[in-house]
Amino acid sequence: FASVNSVDYDNTNLSSSQFNLGLGSNWALGPNVDLVSGVSWERIRVKASGVSGSDNGIGLNVGLRGRSGQ
Question: What is the pTM of this model?
Fold first, then answer.
């Protein structure tokens, strides 16, 4: 997965942009439940009144996905 976001806030000198790129997977724990996980590289930049900063790092996520019925 990948995403790019850019935001300019109205009536301010504030803007931000974010980029991430990653991989995800899922494992069946039962007929109606999966364990989902992912790892990504994240980058964010923020500008405010001529001053800017940026940072990058690693994102991790883990969750459960299920369906009802059947």
Answer: 0.71
